[in-house]
Amino acid sequence: MNIAIVGAGALGLYYGALLQRGGHDVRFLLRRDYEAITSTGIRVYSINGDFVLPEVSGFRRPEEIGVVDLVVIGLKTWANDQYAALVGPLVGTGTKILTLQNGLGNEEQLADLFGAARIYGGVAYLGANRGAPGTVHHLAAGRIILGAMLAEHTRDATQLAELFSAAGVTCTAVTDIARARWEKLVWNIPFNGLCALVQRPVDVLLAHAGTQELVLKIMREVIAAANAQELTEPIPLEYADELLEFTRAMPTSYRPSMQIDRAEGRPLELEALIARPLAAGRARGVEMPLTAALSALLDLP
Amino acid sequence: MNIAIVGAGALGLYYGALLQRGGHDVRFLLRRDYEAITSTGIRVYSINGDFVLPEVSGFRRPEEIGVVDLVVIGLKTWANDQYAALVGPLVGTGTKILTLQNGLGNEEQLADLFGAARIYGGVAYLGANRGAPGTVHHLAAGRIILGAMLAEHTRDATQLAELFSAAGVTCTAVTDIARARWEKLVWNIPFNGLCALVQRPVDVLLAHAGTQELVLKIMREVIAAANAQELTEPIPLEYADELLEFTRAMPTSYRPSMQIDRAEGRPLELEALIARPLAAGRARGVEMPLTAALSALLDLP
Questions:
Q1: Under a CB-based contact definition with an 8 Å cutoff, are residues B173 and B158 in contact?
Q2: Does A217 sit within 8 Å of B297, measured CB to CB?
Q3: How far is CA A1 from CA A94, A96, B150, in A?
Q4: Which residue from A84, A91, B24, B100 has the least number of CB within 10 angstroms?
Q5: Predicted TM-score of the model (pTM)
Q6: Which of A211, A217, A301 comes nearest B300 by C-beta?
Q7: Does B40 lie in the same domain as B9?
Q8: Which of B117, B145, B174 is the endpoint of a domain?
Q9: In which domain, by residue range, is A261 found?
Q10: What was the ipTM of the complex prediction?
């Protein structure tokens, strides 16, 4: 299958490399890593075993890639205004688009441009950071949960999940991608938000009774907002405790992406990750005072 | 009158200099500024007019100062475990002790050591920072509200207030110093806490709708906790709006003391300024979730 990777950060490089290793024709749209990757390929340092792809197809412009069967999007969400320019040239009649981006609103923005029928959303539980150009460090997890935007394409979602599974990614298809997105937000909002704000890794927040309690309270706010959205089934309150356990098992000093973005002076994914969930909660009458506080503090110039 | 200044930071230097200029025998207990002040005196850069005191009595040890009529304490509250060592040698039969420190618990700790009858508490609305050794910059306000710990000494509190007034400080005596302390906490908790957390001055918080709303919500939490403490009269909710107006009139880029302490790597006055008010609220059944969040985030190692 022809696959284009748009947004070749840690996530795009990691899944793209696995798909290429799995036998697909993968074409990476690159900016920072173009020189390194087109000359020496991609090097993956992974908890599942390191590997190198010496030959990788890298491109600077989507027009050079042309129409593909599948577009996998790993862009930072603040770059979504470039969807038309970056994804448009890759889309033909049969092209499917899978966004693995964080937060809310990505599928809807893609559907506005390319029609809902080809849009799939995925939630990636991946701990990975970029290293030197052309290298990616896979530190934890890697599972993807994905679904079709339209219910009648559930079978195609299952086939997409099988594509990833065959490439070595634990991947399941679900009928309610919105629920999977909200589940991930239960982790993302407190940990991405608080770690970015205080510039401390997740284990420091969990080691302090006060901030662990704050994480739990924010998780409960997000669960309440999620359960006001008419999901196929509610997220149980105990899910917050499960996530704390999951997080305790993560590598020491793990830094969520927003913490790294802020430390390196890049824009933050505040809109998709925090502002939209907050607005979605409010729209259903669920106030989220701690989430709102976090949102405001991170948004300060 | 013989007056000892213990804790000669910006506040101690400023009020001590005014009292000396007003004709009192003021003795400064000094550490950082000892050399500068004993050789060239104190220089005050003030919105009310600059002045210099070329001759100032500075001491390194309280035993060298001896017993005085009045001890004025401007220590950081995290140094309160040094009360006995620093204040003890200054106290004789008729000595009064006035703490101008921030937060809750200072009068009680002094009363445990020296008896409640001689203890006075004051709340200083002073915008001042230390400059080079021996210099202090008075940027805003300067008013003191003070009161006796024991109601039967209200007349002495009035005399203390007159002492300050005669030296050029706007100063009033009140019967309920606890209420004055809580009133100041309504400002201190949001502004000291949030500015320290995000390392932005007060005007940046007020210029952003989200953080201004957060400031207001924290103020309302503090007012609710205050009004559960059996004050002589409740603090009205509109007091929060008055404080926002007061703050808008402050100098551009004004940094509260806790913001400066954190920027310079010093300990924070978290116990007196945030933890004790939080505990006092909880003890009366008032939850303060945003204040608790702020407390936890500032307390992270």
A1: yes
A2: no
A3: 12, 11, 84
A4: A84
A5: 0.91
A6: A211
A7: yes
A8: B174
A9: 179-298
A10: 0.90
